[in-house]
């Protein structure tokens, strides 16, 4: 379905509007504004034309937020000789959409033939600027191929959009739209439109401006309620292209700055080029799709990055969909942040600062559950308050707090940036206090249990002593101990308590098999009939979670992720035992699973498995492998897992104990070379691997 | 606060409207219609004037019901010389409310003195007929004491009421009302009013009629939108009482039947007398309040009884409040049904038939969770579909299914009525199939575990092998085995499987202490600081359930209930061990706890504890011991637990293996005699205990 170029992806054929896979794939974003590729012209409904802003949340009920669907900045309609291309009474030929990965330009072109046989070539181009986060632009080109007719274009800013809040429970579907915009006021005049609107409770004020220009014809006011617009009327002459541009600014200056579509695109392209210089991974591979697919993953990762703003983070679907209400999860820290850590340390620093900035709310979360210290929320929108109110996940999937501490420490370890060390010491200590109050001391056995928790594998029930959570909590406690040793003031008895929990906390381990056990219930779960599955659809579509939790089956990587995060804690045979036991029982019904399995397989020498899983992760959205890229948006964590599989798995990049980078290349069959740049300890390196060997260079100097 | 007569309770003093304790206490019902004692005249808001109908549910969102607040049938307003008694500009003296427990008549009287010093005696009487379930009546008497003035009375049927849906989560408060009535149409003329309305989705049609009569003055139409009414104008003369009556029919005949307030009350009183003949418990005790309090409990139990309708059951708050959306719980089977089983077997039969009638939905519930057989819902409204959608309770508190089977078997055992035996065999077998699919076989240890369940004690977390649930599930399997042995057709392999689960299912047991353990996690929970509590309020008001579940603390009776349900399974020392271990760790933050502890204490010879717990249960609503009788209504299960404590605990009524009743009196100190009637095996008995001995007589013949 998707055609892969070296630096672009494209697709042919016109489809009626729907929450389509392609509308997600061609979503554009600069990390501040994101917009799905759904057009009014195609009949997209008010809740399908989606534009989101980083941190653009508002409340839909007390304490519960949704990400507000902003006015449609790419709003346009076109009619030629009273026929509306894309609607009934005619047909498209040669319909083709392309996303240029190098500069973020989306273009679509086709010939519209109306019922009278009039053929008109239509080309739409749009981008969101990577140079100035407030800017975006749209260009429409019309060419009458066999006729002369009047064309009418309407270009505006449309506040007539709606939210369709998505149910947290993946098995439920909501059909009830919500009006999240209010008090929309527009004006239009002299080639300019302006629109202001408030979000539901007034938390957000949205201010959009646009300048509309045209190569020919006349322009007048075409506003309707909620949609200030310019109406362009032009006489199309055969084989002469008429061009109209809309230059848009969102929450920016009073007037869109000077320039035109081409000059703005050029500026944005330069900004993209700088980003690509650090982020690109060049692969010489037999499979020609692989390079573009990999670049697509990197492209979307860069589109996710909050635009120099430490008060927002990355949603589980970036800005490509309102799934999960736009909330931030552990996906950011463990799946997405590593990419930025090595390719854009300033962006990683902002992600870490986001967690520092929300430490006060994390304290409130702990207090609300009658615990000490700071507890990071499973789902996070405004500030750091818990947005997930379910019992099994919101209260029980508590590893997020240790994940945040782990990722913060990775920032220190990889960047060597000590400017955040003091603040992070506070984070380590306050999260350690949370854990110290969350473990339950069992006086009979003199052990600490972590009761009623759920690990990363969400098909497990609420159990106890989930190994991933316990071991990462110990790591969190260890970070606090080190902070205290390095001078961070704690009360005298705290370090002893933390050490005692590290020593006496419980993880299941079968010494004979050298096997870590996922949780206290895992071995007594019922065997799952893997052969009996009738479809590839996630099993939660056919089995209720209540039933699922009693089967010995994993949704996603759990211990397999842990051995990658903390490899030094496991012997090679323990790692192999974990792989052999858990990999065959994992259904990968979470998008977080494939990339991690690819990475683990590469590290453990399972070459075929590594490549198979890598392909699943890499093409997860491109080929709609989960079946929900259209209805849920781009799976941001999978993008980051693909990067980790490539760089940590196939290239084997590691900083070791010394902070000096090294590679352990494990290139898949069919790959002849791999090259990428990365940062470590404040230095920029280039890594290169071929079949003959590998090198890491700093400023052209080979360092290893 | 409450004054206790032998056959009545009363209260003095006027209070402004609020969801008051007294509005619940004085609630009247015949089991078909129930109405809180909240009056428009006092300023009660549209969601405070509550009238409910048995089974009167409708949907507030897809799949979720609420119990519909019906039009206010006791609607009235009165003004005297343009002053409105109960409102500002005057004051009441001698305000006194009384509920006659013998005939269900509620009366209130007072003298209203307006700002000009005009004194008017006002008396309101109302009842809901126990003779004809469709009928109710209201009477207003006005006497000018020191003046002659014009009085205006408005008596109507008011559809201007609202629902205030109560959040399932006890810690959340809802302030958002919902309009559950629509298409209200009224008419008024010639002393009659009529009102029809539909519930929100049209599931219910409500048809109310009333006849309004008066001893003096004129009558005209006084209708407003939503409220057909008669307006009575009368000249009050000094010391002459004017009387107005409203004779109401709900979903009954076209016109209210002949008669007046007095004659209708007489009929209703006769029906009450018949009920009392079977239900009363006479106690000669030093505490004079005890007899009335006990009768109040019995009175409310009788008010709960569905009026000869096997398609509805008893809500956790009867018809006294919309708390829990009016839903039916295990409260019915284990707490309320025993009272009817022994005092009104036909009513018990209807309750059992309700579960039989909802077996098809119970099958659907099991199927929805990918299980076999039939699963009764934790919360039940329309049909038998699960109304509880929380993870920790709705999915996990599964003992309800075994409770239903247990209670059905109790019906057979106590009544000896075999006419339902075949249908109940089906219920036993289908619920056993549910259990057989719900247990998880552990092939390593060759045992069956009941994973991820919550027992009756709701402060425990979702754990495994809750002893109450496992042992009652075994009992359910045993009932199915007996049904199969008695000829109910099952597949050949089923009995063996059921036997295997009975044998190999797991319950924690400490042989040294002869102690059953509540669940797999109980012994490793953290000790709770019982001394550190600052208030008597339920601990869930200050500790989140997530924190609570890690403390070794019980909300309510769990194993202590089990030893009463299945006493033959436990030795005396095992029972004593259970009491000694669990009773001190129970907070009784559930209204289901006190009565059960009273019963257990009596059986185990703890005389002081028995009486202390009995008092808590008996006065639970009367003295507002839980603090929520006003905001949540009458706790129906506690009423039934009080009865069980008295009859099974203090009197020691038992049928033994032979079906012949016997007593083991354990009268509390200060009780000199106790007498009650009961049915067993189709015969009616009278039991009498004094300090000198005890007897059971059938038709005047002493049988033991």
Could you provide a short overview of the structure?
The first copy, chain A, has 704 residues and is of the alpha+beta class.
SSE topology:
Two copies of one chain form a homodimer.
Chain A: E1 2-4, E2 8-12, H1 21-25, E3 28-29, E4 33-35, E5 51-53, E6 57-61, E7 64-67, E8 76-80, E9 90-100, E10 106-114, E11 119-128, E12 135-144, E13 149-156, E14 181-189, E15 192-199, E16 205-214, E17 218-221, E18 229-236, E19 241-250, H2 261-279, E20 281-285, H3 289-304, H4 330-343, H5 345-357, H6 359-368, H7 391-395, H8 400-415, H9 421-438, E21 440-442, E22 447-449, H10 467-485, H11 494-504, E23 508-510, E24 515-517, H12 545-548, H13 559-565, H14 572-582, H15 594-603, H16 607-618, H17 629-632, H18 636-650, E25 671-680, E26 683-690, E27 693-698, E28 701-702
Antiparallel strand pairs in A: 1-2, 2-9, 3-4, 4-5, 6-7, 8-13, 9-10, 10-11, 11-12, 12-19, 13-18, 14-15, 15-16, 16-19, 17-18, 20-25, 21-22, 23-24, 25-26, 26-27, 27-28
Helix pairs in contact in A: 3-18, 4-5, 4-8, 4-18, 5-8, 8-9, 8-10, 9-10, 10-11, 13-15, 15-16, 15-18, 16-18
């Amino acid at each position: 379905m998707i055609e892969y170029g070296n630096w672009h992806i494209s697709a042919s054929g016109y489809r009626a509007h729907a929450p389509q896979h392609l509308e997600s794939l061609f979503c554009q974003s600069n990390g501040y504004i994101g917009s799905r590729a759904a057009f009014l012209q195609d009949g997209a409904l008010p809740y399908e034309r989606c534009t989101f802003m980083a941190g653009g949340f508002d409340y839909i009920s007390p304490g519960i937020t949704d990400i507000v669907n902003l006015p449609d900045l790419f709003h346009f309609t076109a009619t030629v000789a009273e026929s509306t291309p894309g609607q009934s009474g005619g047909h498209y030929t040669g319909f083709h959409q392309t996303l240029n990965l190098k500069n973020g330009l989306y273009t679509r072109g086709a010939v519209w033939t109306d019922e009278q046989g009039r053929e008109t070539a239509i080309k739409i181009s749009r981008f969101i600027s990577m140079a100035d986060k407030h800017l975006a632009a749209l260009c429409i080109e019309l060419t009458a191929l066999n006729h002369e007719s009047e064309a009418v274009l309407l270009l505006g800013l449309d506040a007539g959009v709606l939210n369709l809040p998505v149910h947290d429970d993946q098995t439920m579907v909501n059909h009830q739209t919500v009006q999240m915009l209010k008090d929309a006021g527009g004006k239009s005049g002299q080639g300019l439109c302006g629109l202001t609107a408030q979000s539901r409770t007034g938390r957000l004020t949205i201010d959009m401006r646009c300048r509309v220009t045209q190569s020919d014809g006349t322009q007048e006011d075409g506003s309707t309620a909620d949609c200030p617009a310019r109406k362009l009327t032009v006489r199309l002459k055969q084989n002469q292209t008429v061009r109209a541009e809309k230059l848009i600014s969102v929450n920016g200056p009073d007037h869109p700055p000077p320039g035109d579509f081409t000059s703005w695109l050029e500026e944005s392209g330069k900004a993209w080029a700088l980003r690509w210089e650090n982020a690109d991974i060049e692969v010489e591979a037999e499979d020609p799709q692989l390079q573009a697919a990999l670049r697509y993953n990197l492209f979307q990762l860069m589109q996710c990055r909050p635009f120099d703003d430490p008060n927002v983070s990355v949603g589980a679907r970036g800005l490509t969909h309102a799934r999960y209400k736009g909330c931030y999860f552990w996906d950011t820290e463990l799946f997405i942040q590593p990419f930025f850590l090595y390719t854009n340390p300033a962006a990683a620093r902002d992600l870490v600062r986001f967690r520092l900035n929300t430490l006060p709310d994390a304290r409130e979360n702990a207090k609300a559950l009658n615990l000490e210290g700071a507890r990071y929320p499973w789902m996070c929108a405004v500030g750091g308050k818990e947005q997930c109110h379910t019992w099994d996940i919101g209260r029980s999937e508590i590893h997020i707090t240790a994940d945040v501490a782990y990722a913060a420490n990775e920032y220190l370890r990889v960047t060597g940036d000590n400017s955040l060390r003091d603040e992070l010491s506070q984070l380590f200590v306050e999260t350690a206090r949370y854990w110290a109050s969350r473990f339950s001391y069992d006086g009979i056995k003199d052990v600490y249990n972590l009761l009623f928790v759920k690990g990363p594998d969400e098909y497990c029930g609420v159990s106890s002593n989930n190994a991933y959570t316990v071991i990462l909590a110990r790591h969190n406690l260890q970070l606090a101990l080190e902070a205290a040793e390095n001078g961070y003031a704690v009360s005298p008895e705290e370090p002893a308590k933390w050490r005692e929990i590290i020593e006496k906390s419980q993880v299941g381990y079968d010494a004979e098999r050298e096997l870590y056990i996922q949780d206290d219930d895992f071995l007594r779960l019922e065997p799952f009939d893997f052969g009996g599955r009738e479809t590839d659809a996630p099993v939660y579509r056919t089995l209720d979670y209540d039933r699922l939790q009693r089967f010995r089956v994993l949704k996603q990587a759990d211990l397999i992720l842990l051995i990658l995060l903390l490899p030094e804690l496991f012997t090679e045979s323990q790692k192999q035992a974990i792989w052999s036991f858990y990999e065959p029982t994992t259904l990968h019904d979470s998008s977080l699973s494939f990339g991690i399995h690819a990475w683990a397989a590469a590290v453990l020498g399972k070459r075929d498995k590594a490549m198979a899983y890598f392909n699943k992760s890499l093409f997860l959205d491109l080929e709609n492998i989960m079946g929900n890229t259209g209805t849920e948006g781009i799976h941001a964590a999978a993008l980051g897992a693909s990067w980790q599989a490539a760089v940590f798995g196939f290239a084997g990049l590691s900083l070791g104990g010394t902070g000096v980078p090294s590679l352990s290349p494990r290139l898949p069959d069919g790959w002849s070379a791999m090259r990428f740049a990365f940062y470590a300890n404040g230095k920029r390196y280039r890594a290169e691997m071929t079949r003959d060997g590998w090198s890491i260079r700093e400023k052209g100097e080979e360092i290893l």
